[in-house]
Amino acid sequence: MSPFELAQPKSLAEAIALLDGESVRPMGGGTALMLMMKAGVLRPSRLVCLDKLNLNEIQVNPAGELRVGAMVSLRRLEKSDLVRRGWLVLARTLRTLSNVRVRNVATVGGHLAHADPHMDLPPVLSALGARVTIEGPKGRRTLPVEAISTGYLETSLQRNELITQLEVPPLGKRRAAYLKCTTRSADDWPALGVAVVLDPLGIVISAATDKPTRLTNAEKILRNSLDEKSIAQAGEAAVEEVHIEGDLHGSAAYKKQLLKVYLKRAILEARKPVD
Questions:
Q1: Model-level pTM?
Q2: Each residue's pLDDT tens digit, 222-274
Q3: Which is it for the CA torsion 24, 26, 31, 32, positive or negative?
Q4: CATH classification for the domain delimited by 175-271, as one of 3.40.50.2300, 3.30.390.50, 3.40.50.300, 3.40.605.10
Q5: pLDDT per residue as tens digits for the range 235-248
Q6: For the packed helices 252-271 and 228-241, what is the interaxial angle rounded to 10 degrees?
Q7: Residue ranges per domain, the chain?
């Protein structure tokens, strides 16, 4: 790796100020960042470590929303009693996200800001209508999780902005499921991920596209009926409405077939009674 400066700000304002510069990058858990640096893909002159900032809370606000600080580890989110009671789909999704060693270090904010389309949480959070709070030199703004990723490893975040908090609406009586197909081990990068939320219906896919993508045409077909015929029609519409990307985990043709199969499976999984 190339030499770099490591800064450890003690306040959010200090962290934002230190991010000024083209070759400066923030660091949460550093799991993806370090791999990119070792591979020579990324050569930052400065890393701004965020571990001293007070962004580690997991709480439910009076409106029933789940609020998660950007520096909460994925493992802590997975094991949280609040999450398991109110947002079980998140806990289940996290169980096969990479491995325990990675989840112990990787952070919620870093996971979302990395914008790798193979990641598991973004499609689920997008389908749930989750939002993030973003802080920068121009102040604070709120953005739907669905709007963070703009392409492969590309985001709508400005260079000197930080995700500070994730907010997930109450799940209530809504039912949700996330299924993925991996071509090797269960914790491998998926060839396809499908997130489904019912009442109201939301369907978001990942891994087969260059960013988490909502299946709006499929949603329209399924809005009034979830019978076998409608699900089959929605599957056909889904493969026509998005550009499917082939990669090491499967060809575009293979992933189109996966999408039809896993869309149906995810809907049926979401319709199951909650344990």
A1: 0.94
A2: 998 999 999 999 999 999 999 999 999 999 999 999 999 999 999 999 998 76
A3: negative
A4: 3.30.390.50
A5: 999 999 999 999 99
A6: 140
A7: 1-172, 175-271
